[in-house]
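Q: Joint fold for the lines below.
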Amino acid sequence: MEVQVLMSESTNSSRSTDIPSTTIEEIDLDTLVRVDNLCKYYEDDRGLIDWALSRDPEKVRAVDGVSFEIKRGETLGVVGESGCGKSTLARTIMGLHQPTEGTVLFAGKNVAEQVKSDRKRFARRAQIVFQDPSSCLDPRLTLREIVREPLDIHKVGPKPHRNERVEELIERVGLATDQLDRYPSELSGGQRQRIGIARALALDPELLLLDEPTSALDVSVQAQILNLLQEIQEEYNLSYLFISHDLSVIRYLSDRVMVMYLGKIVEIAPSEVIFEEPAHPYTEILLSSTPSKKANIDGKQVRNADIPSPRNPPRGCRFHTRCPVVVPPDNHNVEFEQDEWLAVFDYKLRLRSGRLDTNKLTELVELQDNKTENQTNIKEVVRETCGIPQTLSDSTAEEVLDDSLSALADGDTETALECIAVDFESPCEKQNPPVMHISEGHHSACLRTENE
Amino acid sequence: MISKRTRTAVLKELHSNKLATVGTALILCMLFVGMFAPVLAPHDPTQQDNSQTHQPPAFMGGETETTRLVDGEMQTVTEDNSGSLTHPLGTDTNGRDVLSRAIYGARTSLLVALTAMMASLILGTSVGMTAGYFGGKTDTILMRFVDVVLAFPALLITLAMIGVIGPLTFFIPDPFVTSGLITDRPTHMVFPVTITAAIAAVIWVWIARVARSEAIRVKNEEYVTAARTMGRSNFGIIRKHVLPNSITPILVLATIQVASIIIIESSLSFLGFAGTNLSWGYDIAQGRDYLGTSWWLSTIPGLFIVIAVVGINLFGDLLRDALDPGIDRGEV
Ligand code: SF4
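A: Joint structure:
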């Protein structure tokens, strides 16, 4: 029944001819893009020797199992630190990369296949506004040639018509047509970005990928460009996929916001919800670090500024190495106060990442005047460095910790790790946090969310 | 391909840089001399005259005392052997006019240099662009091959190729003589095919390297990604964006390489692989036995080589300075 209805509706829609009947079930007319369990792994370039020895290159998990939708006419903001995979995700959606796994459906059709068979056709539906205004325009072409390029490639109408269209677009983005014969180097960053927008609009696309379109611009110019983008969206009924690391910019333009961390979605929610009631600890930290919202959430901070490499992401919840509210062990052997637990967990992480090797220990001891390097001193210094109190409140935990510290002082890092592996294991390390439904359209992937 | 901006930049640089003007003048002279050799040469460069051997350049030489066998006896005789304006730069062992030979030599050098350059430019740019733009295995395979060629000395490879192919030459009718404008000059230009091919075979790798690194630089620019999202094909992107934005350093290198080609060509001719005897290197080799007595035989062609090489290098510098500083890179 449902399918029938959809079909009758789709025959009225202008794009009905694009839709093959086999995929009709999957089509929801409001959905423009549907991303399903998308993965994109990069392999390092294999050298000749690797190739000869058929060694497998290391994989970089840039995007790792991501699913979401973009509705027609909406702006989906994607936010995350650099290296979180947001650019790769966006470019895979645009068909510039082949997905390693999973699919992207654009108006019901697989983008990877569409691009392979007919990139030009797909190009008319989705375009990009780039980040770097100094590199997104070919310095050898005049502005007219740049904006006309998409029209030339697609042979849209006769030449005079194309020139007319170029002028129309240039005026729409707020530039004067008498500048058309100038070169990009003669323009300011903001003006170049306007040209970039005009070029992206030339083919009348349905989706625009905005790849940090304002991050290279002055603050005053940023606002103008954002306004322009907003006006254009309404005028042309565009969907935006808006990528930025800057939450204030995201907030201005987005209907929904998706937060990414190391190739995974950690939280997705309508814009107001993300900013008012963030559920995921990482989102809270991102919010607290934007200048517009200085408030430090309950004094929580990222414990560890290093972002782990996507080559070898942490197991379980990928944020556990930095999470200020990482869940204490649930095996009932030991009980922790939250502060103690964080300090002990910090010790474990340092141990695991090799930041407490013998050299480092010697260095730490030497920093303390008139202390020689013996077992008691080393233990003390390590406790101090990680912020662990002299004795833990739980006696079992204290025993376990002391064993581990002794082993460490003897220079046996492995045993030191083994001692605490079971008893001090956070659930966050063990399992992938499931995506929890919190309210309408609000999902978060954190064990804490589940507990609440 | 040459935009208005490029032309203005070159003219401006010409204006402000004296040395560049000299270089350009030298090059233009060379081209002119090479093109109009039959008109400019005072004599047929191949015409032998046994009564007029070893004549020094005009205003030089004079009476010399030599000891030699006259009528079975050793005698010291005074001979008048002073240069004349008929042979402004003297004559060689066979009485051929040195100036005419040098002028015809320019023609051979230019013919070889320009053809080899064009061939290298086409081959090197295609290979370099392909390797740089596509990357991956294509790049690895192509560039390994380039490295192998680079690892051997240029002269060695050319010699080996000449050994394999053998001396092939190609006769091109001289338009001035065939049209009857000029008589008494060689009716054909000799185009040494083997040498040209051998030189191109070692020069293209340099071009390929630069083309590749430029292609890599340009392909990472966002306008290339933009062109891809607009639906341009790979070939279209290379033609429309990558090549035009890489061409400057390639052309500068190519210009400067013309100088090395001239030197390689002369060296090969010097070693006797010329395929033609109208070549500077050949003349230098012929004259080296008489350096003590008839210095001009080797010196004159040598000077021509120096002038050509200096001129080309100055011109190369001009191109680099005019095209490089930011104007084309959008960073005024
Ligand atoms: S799952 Fe654990 S580590 Fe991950 S964000 Fe939630 S509390 Fe922090």
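Q: Anything notable?
A: The CA atoms of residues 269 and 442 of chain A lie 4 Å apart. Residues 338-425 of chain A form one domain.
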